[in-house]
Every structure is written in C-alpha cells, then in structure tokens.
Amino acid sequence: MTTTATTAAPAGTGTTFSAARTLATAARVLRQLRHDPRSIALMLLVPCVMLLLLRYVFDASPRTFDGIGASLLGIFPLITMFLVTSIATLRERTSGTLERLLAMPLGKADLIAGYALAFGTLAVIQSALATGLALWALGLDVIGSPWLLLLVALLDALLGTALGLFVSAFAASEFQAVQFMPAVIFPQLLLCGLFTARGNMHPVLEQISNVLPMSYAVDGMNEVLRHTDVTADFIRDVLIVAACALLVLALGAATLRRRTT
C-alpha cells in the first residue's frame, strides 16, 4: 500500500496572479478607508486646499501662480498619497492584518496590486478634483489639453502610492513612516526644478535630479503648460513616471514582510 504526500504551498506565495484576489483586496481596503474620514480628507481635500491657498498667496501676481501651479498640481497629490499609503499599509502590518492575509492563499503580487488599485482609485478622484479646481475655479492658464494635465497628476499620485507602499516595509511605526518623508520626498522636491531650472544647479545636483521621478513629473506638467500639442519630451516624461511607479510597486512586492519587528 502506498501513500501519496501532498505539499501545501507556503502561505502568502500564490502560484499565479489572481484578478479576483486583487479585486477582493482592493474592495476590503476601500471599505476600511470609508470608515476613516481623516485619511479621506487628507487624500482628497488637502491638495485642493493647498492649491487654493497658493492661488491667493500670489493674488497680485497671477502669472506666478500659472508658472508654479501646474507643477504643484502634480507634487501635492504625490506627497499626500505617499503619506496616507505608507501609514495605512504600516497600520495593516502592525495590527496583524497583513500576517493573517498572507496566511491565506494570497500572493504578494495580489496584495500589492490590491492596495495599489484601492489607493489608485482614490488617486483618480483626487487628481480630478485638484485639476478641475485649478483650471476652472482658480483660473490656471495652460496652453495644452486639460486631459494631459490630469494624466500627469494621476501618474504622480500613483507614484506617491507606490513609494508609500514601498517605504512602509522599512518602518516599525507610523512615526517612522512619516520620518521617511524627508529622506524620500524632500530631496526630490528641492531638485525637481520647481525652485530653479535644473540646468542652473550644480552639475552634481543636476545629475542626481536626472534620476529622480519627481523631476520628470514637473517637466511633464511644464510641457502641458507651454505646448498645445503632445511633444516627444512629454511622452518621455510620462513614460518615465509610469515606469518608476511600476518599478517601485515591484520592489514593494519583493520587500513585503508579514510582521514589523
């Protein structure tokens, strides 16, 4: 008499990517966020409030707002999505929710894709609200299509989501997650070309800025600001931002851990 032994797949290592598991994860995250009005307000309203304040800071100089408003339309969503995503994901880990999920037949790719889909849905709403406010309520003057402006804003928000998912793997507390902001976001903010043209920087800083995704987010916004048609530089900027978001999401799946120690 012979017996056949079966080996169960390790928890959290689904053999194939499952759209059903990804959608279920996204739906669960959205249900949880629905009961967290502060996070929703931070994601959806804060970028709009910051743009509103900026518009009236430069009330006597509308052209100044036109010059930097488009760039900040991409930067504000990136920052807020980074903060909310990193803290929310870390909360899942420290509460034990992530460990329970990975004990199920749920692959890391399913989990990361589900989180990205949930926060990406909010990123779409956030980008639409901020873009609509800037263009039709605050009078942001752009030469290119508003839809291109919305596209870049959305990609920036998705990049912020990906960065937040990635850095949450290295934080042991929500305070530590916030501490990553000076290390991950502030250097990009200083070197992205918002305050001065990147060509005017020290050559070393210019070279560093050339590998930072926020630089291409700002460049993409400026292309829409100055050109009526889609330019080759705009296509390059959009593809780089999208590729960086996908790369960081892949790194987030690779570094995903069950428990924060």
From TrEMBL:
Q: Where in the cell is it found?
A: Cell membrane
Domain of life per record? Bacteria
For this protein, the parts annotated as crossing the membrane are: 40-58, 70-90, 111-135, 147-170, 177-197, 238-256
Which parts of the sequence belong to the ABC transmembrane type-2 domain?
A: 34-259
UniProt keywords (A-Z) are:
Antibiotic resistance, Cell membrane, Membrane, Transmembrane, Transmembrane helix, Transport
Q: Which Pfam families match?
A: ABC2_membrane (PF01061)
Membrane topology is: Multi-pass membrane protein
Family as reported in the entry's similarity comment: Belongs to the ABC-2 integral membrane protein family.
Q: What is this protein called?
A: Transport permease protein
Q: Species name for this entry?
A: Streptomyces monticola
Organism lineage string: Bacteria, Bacillati, Actinomycetota, Actinomycetes, Kitasatosporales
